[in-house]
Amino acid sequence: MAKFLVQKSGPLNGEVVISGAKNAVLPLMAATILSEEECVISDVPQLKDVDVMKEILLSIGGKIKSAEEGVLSIDMGNIEKWEADYDLVSRMRASFLVMGSLLGRCGRAKVYMPGGCTIGARPIDLHLKGFEALGAEIIVKDNFIEAIAPEGGLRGESIYLDFPSVGATENIMAAAVLAEGTTYIENAAEEPEIVDLANFLNKMGARIKGAGTDTIKIEGVERVHGASHTVIPDRIEAGTYMLAAAITRGTLLIKNMVPDHVKPITAKLRESGVTVELADEGLYVDASGDRKLVAADIKTLPYPGFPTDIQSPFMSFLTTVEGSSTVIETVFENRLMHVAELNRMGANIMTEGNKAIVQGCKHLEGAQVIATDLRAGAALVLAGLVASGTTEISEIYHIERGYEKFTEKFRAIGANIMRVEE
Ligand code: UD1
Questions:
Q1: Residue 177 phi, psi dihedral angles, 5° rounding
Q2: What residues does ligand 1 touch, defined as CB less than 6 Å away?
Q3: Which atom of ligand 1 lies closest to the CA of 191?
Q4: Which residue range forms the structural domain that includes residue 108?
Q5: How many domains does the chain have?
Q6: Which of 27, 62, 79, 117 has the fewest CB atoms below 10 angstroms from its CB?
């Protein structure tokens, strides 16, 4: 098993170029299933999760070429089966995103129960309610889920989501593209990744309006065609590097990012005393010098609220500022597992249900810790950069699922991080 060894590194300085967004590219790749013609996706990050999605597409009959780094040509002309294998789906929750497109294109889809990060129960009831509303029959048996479209195909319908689930919005939107009639998704998720997917689907000939608002209208079309698309930059990766500058009291120019996508992170960093300024190519984050950084309260919410994926990296930062901060996690029910690990490094964080109280200004010490999920892993790396001694982080496969060239990018800005195989 590989590990990261992280040592106290001093202020991180320089430039980082943000990669294409993991959470955008996965639904885009799944959506290529809708087209009989080849689609080309650019700025595809090299990630374990992307590899899993490639394997799923190949396993159902897809052909994938990569003429240059970061560009995938995906040809789903011949779909041989409408079933995603257990060993692939169990490795990544986002595999479930193939269900909507398979159901739309083939009228049938069978997908095993999804795996992925262990951050709460993460049910899929909203996805299934959506497919059912479009007329599909849902069979849940053993550990698989099968959806079967009615005679004549899926039919457009109004669907209200009890919670603006990102995955359910994406899956239902994809399923509705080839449905007969018009579908409305109400209380839809508004994340930038939803807009990216709608833009790609529209390039393929879909008729989608309102993505990025809480009501999405999808007018069904008979077929879609191939399209080319560039993935949006990863706002969570950008947020992680913003926090890397903040926690190490460094100065970073973060390039190839959309500043609007990280507004809540910018606002909270500024509240804390960090300088965040618009730059020509992205954002300039400066926490250097003899400045006083203070506590800030965080409450995670669906977009445009504070992103749950940045909650744990932000908490690492809060352990280093003056005063007491309250962090409330409202999106996932069990996403404070990093607290125990940060406390092992000397942090003083108390939890009560989904709330954490962080007493700042603690001196962190290197320890052996576990990356309990993808973003928790990033949070521990950030803490390790300011902790005395060595922080040994295990189960780093979580981190490698979602951050492209992680050690390479961190080392280039002065981080003392090494990947070792045991
Ligand atoms: C996506 C992101 C993930 C991010 C999350 C919230 C991808 C690949 N992953 O995950 O990084 O943390 O959005 O921004 O894009 N829920 C239900 N029933 C459902 C679906 C979801 O109750 O059918 C609940 C979940 O348990 C969770 C909440 O809704 O508590 C949010 O989940 P959702 O928005 O669906 O997240 P994902 O799409 O899984």
A1: -55, -45
A2: 23, 26, 93-94, 120-127, 163, 165-168, 189, 193, 308-309, 331-332
A3: 14
A4: 22-230
A5: 2
A6: 79
